Structure formats: C-alpha cells, structure tokens
C-alpha cells in the first residue's frame, strides 16, 4: 500500500501504520484521514495476514498534534460537519478493526491526536509524550470523539478537567489517570509496542477478535446483557478449530499452532 501522508509496513503478522507529516507534527488533514480510511479498510480484510496493528507518528516529537488547523480555519459549518464526520469514520474504523490496535504515542497527542490514541485498544507512550484536548483554545470542541471516548475511558470528572481547560498533561500523569497503559523511554517505545503486538499476534486470532468484540459491544450493554453476549461468543469459539488446537496443545504439553 503506497500513500503520501502515512507509511504502511507489515511483517510477521503485525501491521505498522505511521502518520507521516513531520513538518506539521503529523497533523491530520483530509488527505491523511482518507489515506488512513483506505489503509484500515485493507487491514480489516486481511485477518489472515495481519493479527495486530500499531499506530504511531513519524519523528521523535509528535504522535499527532491534532486535526490540521490550516485545513480547518476557513471551513463553514457544513465543511466542519463533513470533516468531523470523516474523522469519526476513521476513529470508528480503528475502534472496530477486527485486529487489536496499539497506539505507540511517541510525542504530542493533542486534539485529534489524543482522539486517535483513545480510539485504539491499548496505549503505550514515550516518556516525552504529552496529551491534551486543546480545542477550546481554538474556539471549537473536540470533533473526532473526544467528548465521548475520553469520559468513558478516564471518567467524567478527569475528562472534563482536560476538555474544559485545554491543558496538556505529561505521560506520567496520563499513566496515573489511566489514559495510557504504560510509559517507556522514547528509545524503547517501539520495541515494547512490537513485543506486545507480537504476543497478541501469537495468540488464537479468532479468540482475540472475539475478545475485542465482546469488550467493545459489551461495554454498550448492561451487565446481564453483556454476560449473555459473552456466553454466545464463548459458545462460538467451540465452532472453530482454534479451540481444539489450543486445548489439545495444553493437554499434550506443547505450544499451540494458531
Ligand atoms: N495543525 C496544523 N499545523 C500544525 C498543528 C496542527 N494541529 N500542530 C503543529 N502544526 C505545525 C505548526 O504550525 C508548525 O508549522 P510551521 O513550521 O509551518 O510554522 C509546525 O507544525 C511545528 O509546530 P510548532 O512550531 O508550533 O512546534 P512547537 O514545538 O513550538 O509546538 C505544539 C508544538 C505545542 C504541539 C504546537 O504546535 C501546537 O500547539 N499545535 C497545535 C495543537 C492543537 O491545538 N491541536 C488541536 C487541533 S484541533 C483538533 O484536533 C480538533 C479535532 C476535531 C476536528 C473536528 C473537525 C471539524
């Protein structure tokens, strides 16, 4: 897959998508979002070849410094709606991708960049990463899901503090409030993200996919419905040869071959 604003790499069942507009600190303009959309569509179709995904930013300074402000500045309400809708589509594609997605946050994750990170399933960050939703400084609100996913992830009070103040927090604070899973020195971030991606890629791919579906869809349900939904997905596992291989391998004291 060849793109102008993103770089797609694939090896050993892991796809790495790098947002690559370093001069604009990897800000998301329309073209970058369209490229992400077509890249993610291909990744979603290739569950046989791709078992986990990493999204990161190019360079050592920025993951994604937001939606592109130069692109947005002249927009009218209809243009704003179209752009926000495109961003929402891309974030939903990340969230609902069959494969787990790890955000390797290697610097600024602001505005649309923070929204992209929180659309991913898991967040690892470098020690120089900074997070925030600075939209109120620009006279707008988050438009790629920040007012919705951030409170669901870290709770309403903490999300409100970030959303209303527009302030930036460092990666240690982001880890403390559960916005990121782990923080690593910048030079170890990709290695650690790849290790996790490889571990996920080595597990039963169908089971991992159903786990993601169960968590994502179950979180929209009450507990009883969520547990009933999990029961159905659990039952589905027994229709797949993966379950036979995984359990037989355990009983035969060998590693499973998925
Ligand atoms: N958009 C466009 N260009 C950007 C952006 C951005 N979000 N962020 C940085 N850049 C550009 C700068 O303009 C600059 O370009 P140039 O060299 O041509 O002047 C270059 O990147 C380097 O940036 P700085 O010189 O500012 O670098 P600093 O190290 O001094 O500062 C910061 C880094 C703190 C990250 C600073 O660049 C900054 O504050 N950036 C803006 C952050 C921001 O406000 N992000 C939120 C944007 S709004 C948003 O994401 C809303 C999402 C929903 C949209 C809904 C659609 C309608």
UniProtKB/TrEMBL annotation:
Gene Ontology molecular function terms on file: hydro-lyase activity
GO biological process, one term: fatty acid beta-oxidation
PROSITE patterns in the cross-refs: ENOYL_COA_HYDRATASE
Keyword presence, Lyase: yes
UniProt KW keywords: Lyase
Transmembrane segments: none
Signal among keywords: no
Family per similarity comment: Belongs to the enoyl-CoA hydratase/isomerase family.
Protein name per UniProt: Enoyl-CoA hydratase
Organism field: Desulforhopalus singaporensis
């Amino acid at each position: 897959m060849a793109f102008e604003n993103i770089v797609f790499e694939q090896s050993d069942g892991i796809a790495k998508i790098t947002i690559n507009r370093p001069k604009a600190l990897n800000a998301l303009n329309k073209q970058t979002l369209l490229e992400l959309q077509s890249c993610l569509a291909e990744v979603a179709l290739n569950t046989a070849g791709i078992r986990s995904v990493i999204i990161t930013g190019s360079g050592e300074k920025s993951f994604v410094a937001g939606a592109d402000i130069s692109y947005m500045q002249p927009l009218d309400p209809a243009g704003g709606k179209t752009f926000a809708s495109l961003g929402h589509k891309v974030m939903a594609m990340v969230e609902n991708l069959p494969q787990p997605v790890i955000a390797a946050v290697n610097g600024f994750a602001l505005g649309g960049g923070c929204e992209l990170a929180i659309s991913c399933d898991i967040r690892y960050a470098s020690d120089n990463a900074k997070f925030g939703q600075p939209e109120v400084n620009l006279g707008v609100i988050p438009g790629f899901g920040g007012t919705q996913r951030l409170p669901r992830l870290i709770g309403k009070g903490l999300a409100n503090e970030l959303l209303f103040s527009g302030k930036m927090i460092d990666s240690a604070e982001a880890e403390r409030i559960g916005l990121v899973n782990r923080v690593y020195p910048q030079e170890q971030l990709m290695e650690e993200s790849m290790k996790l991606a490889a571990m996920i890629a080595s597990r039963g791919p169908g089971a991992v996919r159903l786990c993601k579906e169960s968590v994502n869809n179950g979180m929209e349900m009450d507990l009883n419905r969520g547990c009933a939904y999990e029961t159905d997905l659990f039952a589905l596992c027994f229709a797949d040869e993966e379950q036979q291989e995984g359990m037989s391998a355990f009983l035969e004291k060998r590693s499973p071959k998925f």
